[in-house]
Amino acid sequence: MDGSAVTPIDAKSITGKYPEITRRSQLLVVGAGPAGIAAALEGARLGLQVTLVDENPVPGEMMGLDVPQFYGQCMTGAVQNPGRMVEQILATSPGLEAAFDAGVEVLLGTSVWGAFVNGPAVQSLPGRVAGLADQSQSWLCGFDALVLATGARDLVLSFAGIERPGVIGANAFHALVARYDAFKGRRLVILGSDTLAIETAFLALDHGIEVAALVEVRGEPQGSPAAVAAIEARGVAILTRHVIVEATGTLEGVDAAVVVALDAGGGARPEGRRVIACDTICLAIGLVPTVELADVLGCQLAARADRGGHVATRDASGQSSVAGVFAVGDCAGPAPDAAAAGAAAARAAAHWLGVAVPDEPPSPTPDPGNSDTFAYRMDWMRALTATGSPRVLACLCEEVTRADLLGVKPPRYLDCTSPQMVARDARSLLADGPLNHDQFKRLTRASMGPCQARRCREQVAMLLALASDVPVEAVPLAGYRAPVRPLPLSLLATTGESPAMTAGWDVWFGIPGQWTPYADIGTEREVLDDDGSGDSMHL
Amino acid sequence: MTSNRGAAVVIVGGGVSGLSAAWWLARSGYDVLVLDKGIVGWEASGRNGGGATHYQSPLFHEEQRLWPQMDALLGYPTEYRRERIIINLTPAQQARTRHMATVCRDLGYPSVELDNGQLRTLVPLAGDDALGATHFQFGGHANPQRTVQAYAWALQDHGGRVMQHCPVTGFVTAGGRVTAVETRAGRYGCDALVIAAGPQTGVLLRQLGITLPLAAARAEMIVTEPLPLMQHGGVDGNGLYGRQTLRGNLAYGGGPHEWLDENDGTEIARPSTPLLGSLSRRLAALFPKAAHARVIRSWAGIIENTPDGRPVIDRLGDPDNVVVCTMSSVGFGLSPATGHAIHDLVLDGTCSFANIDKLSLRRFDGLPADWRQRRGWVPPLAVADPVGSAVDRR
Ligand SMILES: Cc1cc2nc3c(=O)[nH]c(=O)nc-3n(C[C@H](O)[C@H](O)[C@H](O)COP(=O)(O)OP(=O)(O)OC[C@H]3O[C@@H](n4cnc5c(N)ncnc54)[C@H](O)[C@@H]3O)c2cc1C
Ligand SMILES: Cc1cc2nc3c(=O)[nH]c(=O)nc-3n(C[C@H](O)[C@H](O)[C@H](O)COP(=O)(O)OP(=O)(O)OC[C@H]3O[C@@H](n4cnc5c(N)ncnc54)[C@H](O)[C@@H]3O)c2cc1C
User: Fold this and answer.
1) Cβ atoms of residues A327 and A337 within 8 Å
2) CA torsion through residues B42, B47, B53, B56, sign
């Protein structure tokens, strides 16, 4: 660019249109679980100005959408009482009081719907900003360093009847039982037999909830021998080589889990069918790291079996590929000591900010994780598809069945029966290039619904991997986009905009002459079509 | 030349423009090969508002003639729906919309004015304070993601070929003609070439010694959860363009664009920004009865513009077997007609159904090299990331 000439600003472009950011945080911590609370406390101890944000208590209607966990309508009316919910959080989150006392700005009931930094294709932001919203207001919060301690979310694999109230995920169950004391059920069937499933069983028993059985597709219980023995000692049976085929019941709820024994070929043994009475079926096959914000920020992600899914790639200090953004706790994969890891991340953030960090204890050794995670989940998926109907839903929001997905069927409301369309299926797309989840999504609508693909992202990828015989980690992640929580227009509308944004707003580029009727171009009428505002017409 | 290493017509770019051209040529029995650097329709063509009402274009009549037939012609659903309604909330918006109605009436396309009561009957999500609306009894909108795949499959059904993940890196010329394109997978011979590579069209043409002035920018949209279906999906206004999809979601965009530096086709992220707050604000005002609807996603697409904002659809003089097409940020709706025009230019050197002379590349002869700077069509100076940039300096 010629340094002497002043480049004008295109009045319709984004340049200079973001408002100045008035709320700021030196260290923004997202997630007030053990990892986030420890990060906030350590940050405050090091003299940083810290904001700690957590969406809990999640509004009841959000829970009804299965956001952020798979609550499966298992909550009691108690979740509709915000005051009580906040009390429950304070009572069940050790360290939160201390964070208040240490001067941390603690924002509960506040979700972070996006986080943004300038990069190759965005240079207009007024710095690094996060989008925050509580129930009444949305705003932008500037940050210097960011610790993502967003935890993990429930892995959902479906079977007939999954949409019935009473099918829940292990994390949602944990939240409703241990955090909110707002769980409706009395008798549980748990899917899985790994540590997660066994911990879920203990949690239930300790709260007086009956556990009818654990169901395991593999030949052996997956938990440690000690844990397996301990849960069996409490009288809980583990049905190995079994898979669930249906949650029976009514629109009101589940009344039983129908399970079948698997034969050597992985199919159902007809004589091995059992109906186990229960009011709740808990999916405890796995958890998926919550990487929405990392993805929105443009952090590099990698599919890691030992971390339970896609996670941000990190250096030794826990820093992601985006400078000053750290990921810690369950969102980075299993963390045996989430609190120690959180504190270490705060120290790394302080160091990155140029703040002196005294007497650094050594970072906790990372959990090696379980590299069998993907194989284990695929064993479940294989058993579920071998014994279940192609009409089982792959995507609950959009009611896309497994058959619709693999047949690349347009949604039913299009009522398309052309022979060409009928002749197409997954093979058509695969013949033209490697498997891509987003390509199936845009044609079938699977993963396009209001739960923002929380309930189907992994299983759609797994179904596609199975059908095309590629490893699941080779299926590109269906991307996350802001807002990472489904928030009302009226709420996001309060985010605020600058007078320059309001004044310079146009439908499209506002290029003078772009909408001049063709016949008028080059004639004296040309000026008539342009009212001088350069405003665009509609597309 | 019809060996499987090439085709009679090679088309660079599998967006709607290139795909439609390939479909038209394949339907006419020509051997076509579309090469795309990624997946078909992965760029602007699969990320846009789906509007198909482009009265400013010489291809308008053909656009209007073709859309109602496209599902049948292609054999795949495009989700096309007829007609548009533009809601006016302010007198300035109303004046603008009425001007558009006059322009269209002069072209022979009718519209009617709706008062607030009529508007709310037709568009239940509209509010009590809207001044009214103009109901354009033509035009329409379709689903871009279905449409791109429909073109690709339809052209295959006619014997054409599509190669994805195959960026074109150069050209082989001989005797004033392009005889082949270079890719990582080797050369593909051609008798005729179409370059319809969106923002990368200029970069590619430079290799042929030809200057096509283009500036690329990023634009954003949002989508809500589904709402009860309205009788008309193509309702917009209040500084927004967009539609209610047949599923019921509100998908809308508008507002400021961000100019980007030239990109040679290297994969970059297409981030969206907190602009979604401003989009939400305008959508809630446009449809007060939908203000409760939850936003479930935002996204961004990258589109190019020429200096006058109008397309270039032209057959070059030298080399003389190359047709170039850039739609200058308004190319989805016109695509059925664009493909027809390209088909004609490839085969006959002239468009059979419309005069498109004013879309030729020659109009930019003599444009100063720093035209982007002169207009301010440049990226914002990398601003205010003091923390991040301090670290970058380390
Ligand atoms: C059945 C069961 C029993 C368990 N029992 C125990 C136990 O006894 N003791 C123990 O220490 N651990 C237990 N755990 C494990 C424990 O919950 C997690 O390992 C641990 O909490 C991980 O900590 P974290 O800080 O990484 O994530 P989490 O504790 O999951 O915290 C993450 C927080 O971030 C919030 N969040 C995420 N995204 C956003 C956003 N965009 N905006 C705002 N907020 C956001 C989440 O809502 C959540 O509150 C149990 C887990 C289960 C499933
Ligand atoms: C947010 C948004 C909203 C919009 N709304 C509307 C609307 O409502 N109505 C409307 O009509 N238009 C709209 N547009 C504009 C419209 O999307 C574009 O004008 C149109 O899609 C252009 O299509 P194309 O095929 O010319 O280019 P593109 O879609 O850009 O396709 C070009 C293709 O070329 C490929 N390519 C590039 N370089 C190479 C190479 N070297 N080798 C091989 N392949 C290459 C790319 O991968 C790409 O697939 C909108 C655009 C955006 C971003």
Assistant:
1) no
2) negative
- A159 closest CA partner among A328, A330, A362, A401: A401
Q: What is the rounded average pLDDT of the residues B360-385?
A: 86
CA angle A525, A527, A529 (to 5 degrees): 80
**For a pocket test of ligand 2, which of B330, B334, B335 has the largest count of ligand atoms closer than 8 A to its C-beta?**
B330
Residue B192 Cα to chain centre, angstroms: 24
- pLDDT reading at B391 higher than 70: no
Cβ-in-10-Å burial (0-12, 13-18, 19+) of A278 comes to: buried
Tell which residue, B270, A42, A329, A479, has the closest CA to residue A314. Answer: A329
| Residue numbers in A near B76 (CB within 8 A) | 416, 418, 420-421
Q: What is the pLDDT of residue A525?
A: 84
Q: Which of residues 293-322 of B touch A (CB under 8 A)?
A: 293-300, 302, 305, 308-310
**pLDDT value of residue A225:** 97
A128: contact with B, CB 8 A cutoff: yes
In sequence order, the 6+-apart residues with CB closer than 8 A to the CB of A310 are A289, A291, A295, A301, A302, A303, A304, A477
- Digit-coded pLDDT (tens) for B83-121: 999 999 999 999 999 999 999 999 999 999 999 999 999
Chain A interface, best mutation among B94, B257, B370, by max A CB count within 10 A: B257
Q: How far apart are CA B338 and CA A292, in angstroms?
A: 39
Domain B1-80+142-212+308-362, CATH number (from 3.50.50.60, 3.40.640.10, 3.30.2130.10, 3.40.1010.20): 3.50.50.60
pLDDT for residue A530: 61
**Residue B109, Cβ neighbours under 10 Å: how many?**
18
Question: ∠ at Cα B128 (B126, B134), nearest 5°?
Answer: 55
Check whether A3 has a pLDDT greater than 70.
Answer: no
By CA distance, what is A454's nearest residue in B? B296
Chain B residues within an 8 Å CB radius of A453: none
Note the ligand closest to the C-alpha atom of A89.
1
Give, in order, the Cα–Cα distances in Å from A339 to each of A18, A40, A100, A198, B122. Answer: 36, 10, 17, 22, 57
A247: β partners: A257
Which of A131, A122, A447, A149 minimizes the C-alpha distance to A312? A149
pTM equals 0.96
The two structure tokens encoding residue A423: 């002749």
Q: Which of the listed residues B35, B45, B55, B221 should we mutate to test ligand 2's pocket, taking the one with most ligand atoms within 8 A of CB?
A: B45
Q: Which of A298, A294, A302, A292 is nearest to A118 (CA)?
A: A298
A499: which residues sit within 8 A by CB, 6+ positions away? Answer: none
From A481, A415, A488, select the one nearest A448 (Cα to Cα). A481
Residue A27: alpha-carbon gap to chain centroid: 23
- Give me the residue spans of the domains in chain B: 1-80+142-212+308-362
Quote the CA–CA distance of B306 and A131 in Å, as a whole number: 34
Question: Could you read off the pLDDT of B36-76 as tens digits, one per residue?
Answer: 999 999 999 999 999 999 999 999 999 999 999 999 999 99
Q: Which of A283-292, A333-342, A483-492, B340-349 has the lowest mean pLDDT?
A: A333-342
Q: Do B376 and A8 count as a contact with CB atoms less than 8 A apart?
A: yes
Per-residue confidence (pLDDT) for residue B355, from 0 to 100:
98
Other CB atoms within a 10 A radius of the CB of residue A416 amount to 18
With vertex at residue A526, the alpha carbon angle to CA A525 and CA A529, rounded to the nearest 5 degrees, is 95
Q: What percent of chain A has pLDDT above 90?
A: 89
What is the residue whose two structure tokens read 């320059």?
A500
pLDDT tens column, A121-165:
899 999 999 999 999 999 999 999 999 999 999 999 999 999 999
